[in-house]
Amino acid sequence: MFGASRSATAPPAAPPFALPELRALDAYQLYATCLVVLFVLKAIIGVMRRARVRAAAAQGKAAKFAPILCTDAPAPAGSKGKAVVVGGGSFMGRHVVEQLIHKGFKVFVFDMPGGCLHPRGTGAVYSAGDVTSAEQLRGVFAGAALVVHAAAAPASCTDAAKIEAINLGGTRAVLDAARATGVRALVYTSSATVVFDGEGLTDVDESQPYPRKHADVATETRARAEELVLAASSASLSTCAIRPGVLYGQLDCSLLPGLVAAAYCGASRLVLGSGKNFADFTYAENAAHAHVLAADALLSADAPKRKLVCGHAFFVSDGAPVAFWRMCGLLLSGLGYSAPWLRVPAWLGGLLLGGLSSQSVRFATTHHYFSTEAARKALGYAAPVPQDAAVAATVTHFAHLRAAALGVDPVRCLLEVTASATLIAALAHAALTAPHPLAVKAAAEVARALAAPAAALAGAGVPQPHLLIIAGGLSLALHALGAALPNAKPMRVPRVLPPTIPGVPIIGNLVDFLKGPLDLIAVARQHHRNIFTLKIGPQPITFCCHPDGYETFGRGKDDVLDQAAVYGFTIPAFGKNVVYDAPLDKRLQQIQFVAAIMNTSTMRSYVPKIIHEAEAYFAAWGEEGTVELHKEIAQLTTLTASRCLHGHEVRETLCKEVADLYHDIDGGMQPISTIMPRLPIPAHRRRDRARQELAKLFGSVIDKRRASGLKGDDILQVFIDARYKDGKALTNDEITGLLITLLFAGQHTSSITGTWLGMNIVGYGYLDAVYAEQKAAREANGGELNYDALMSMALMRNCVSETLRLYPPLIFLMRKVIVDRTCKHWTVPRGHILAISPREAGRDERIFADANAFKPERFAEGGQAEGLWSSKTLSDDKKVFSYMAFGTGPHMCLGRRFAFLQLSIIWAVLSDMYDMEVIGKIPPPDYDAMVVGPKGDCMVKYKRRAKK
Fold first, then answer.
1. Residues annotated as binding site for heme?
2. Are strands 322-323 and 246-248 parallel, antiparallel or unpaired?
3. Which residue, 27, 32, 774, 901, could crosslink 433 as a Cys pair with Cβ 3.0–4.6 Å?
């Protein structure tokens, strides 16, 4: 078939494998024919692939999406009145519906039948009809204060008359119906393309005029519709328009499915033009947020604010413009497709991609970004969702369109293989038969290379193969492999780091953090809501301020989120080989020793001991007087902790010495200790001496008890009897360290919480109710204040829960990130410290209504916070990760049962013995302290109750 090698002189010896003669003209004709066949087959393949993507996209329309902005507590339903979203089944309309409902509007959706995204299940009232019928619209608009007009002709519509009817006629109908029904505000969903002239726009503002000639009827009619809306603004009907850039996001019906269709057709590598053009992209939730801001402004009673918005259009975007093709690459690569990299002329790219209008090509190859300053000033707009988080959310939502999910279509593969093999064979034939010296030489080399395999085949009795068959077969095999492995890579969700709060070089946000950490957190939350990173010196600390973050924090095990790396400053106080100085396996065993003593039987045994200490202590108060409550509660909790933890030997003979030594250890926990725990300052020297003395004191008690063989009914005895998995007993120093750790947790935090509890119970008028409750509990249990009586005191336990919500002893809980952790759409990288704030969580209005008020009834049965925390089981039963006073997850405070028991007994006894009154105001928290107590004295007057 292929022409043999020819020479102008003597012909060479015929090779074993001869190339058949064929005129060059026939080769070129064959080549041209194959090209035609190729393009026809490619067109068929493109149609099939696009149909496959559309089918996959249609299957994903009903998929639930996870809004980033609607995760906090919604406003009461209907509290803002009725709102109607015309076109609420569209991509943009669906997001607007979601946010309006979240803001408290009762939303009604009116859309054409078979809208892109059916809004049922959102809480909106849905009806379908003719969006160009003013009569139908009037029926829906009745009683509405707000209308959002988001209806537009679908991008797939090519009927100019239909486009004009929907875009322009529909807008006229909406305006007529709004005027007729007394609608107060109308927000129109426009587009930045209404001012696009095809030549490129860079950082223009709303003063940019509409172009004299629009590129297509869709853009022209939307521009004319926007003009109508803005011109209709009046005293009775306030209007404005929102102009988002290139829209993308969850539920996208256009951009991302179109990109995937191009990628699935093998065209994702193409960059049209230079690839250096920038554009404004707008995440759908950001655009919807702008709609809500505009609605609030138009409905505002503030006339100057309303005037800034009425009759104006506003560009909105994700912030800074981004390279158009880079953004496309981020979306595609996140779904496992190749990012665009091969630059081709715009005209050629449009031809290769197919189906692109000249307007689309110009839009993809020119600058078009705009100033959002007007939206910032008039609406207070700033993109609430960062673009990297938006891209990650979009990619995650469209997992059903990833390359691996679409799979391989056998028919498409066969067509592609046939087309590719035919083209390669034709090209090879044309090259080898061309009358050019290089072609002649190439043909001879091919014949020589194929001589040996041809002879082998002939010797085996196989008919002599034809070169075209060999070339075609090789091509077929290679392209079959290529078709079986389509233009795809494993799905990769872009890693999105939390936003970082700007700071000073080297020291970062250290100065502001030392001035007031909670103030810094509050400012950061205003800008970044749920998650952000501070730099405290060289160390990045990522703060999570939402239940999603609390869950990430709580579910992390020690090999993922390490406590020891953060709380290592406690080692000088607690000791070597104890808790944070112990290897992980040993530390977990020590924690199990502690957990084993927090059972119900042990708690029952503590009740008479704590009651005895409390009654004896308060009896010394006399008939009436004035006390500083914090000092009194601190002394009493030291006695009760010593009785339950250390045993009778320490309580009866060494309590004063232990208390003094513990005071020095506690005093060694300074803010500077967290950075330099062994800095030679006086507080650290006293701490180290006290630690040595306590080791001697407890060591002596332990040795005597071991030698005597007597068993105590205290935690000290539990530690003496405990054994590690290898059978070894705890050393005296390890027992000392664990006792110090428990005393620190059980005395310091309990004394502070007991003080806050009393100030709240007395200061807010709950003392008489607590007195009545404990009296009834005693009577129901034979006149005895026992464990069962204490567990029945729901008000008391709710008061403790509410006190800890408002005044958690520790304002921050931290862990070192050992392995990257995901929090919603963000990734907290290895090396960061992950932090949550129990104080911020407890006062978060999104979680707790009237969060700054002391309302223990919120935790009662039927109360607002009943499902967030159980005062009875002391757990987050429904795993909603909202109550953080004891931490969360596997590291929730083990001593919480003891704390509730101890505090309930103290205030049950105190309320039974005395009536009390707070002198002055309840002091504010001292956030400069390591453990947050009252800032100032807590003075109360008391008088003994008259017994009846």
1. 893
2. unpaired
3. 27
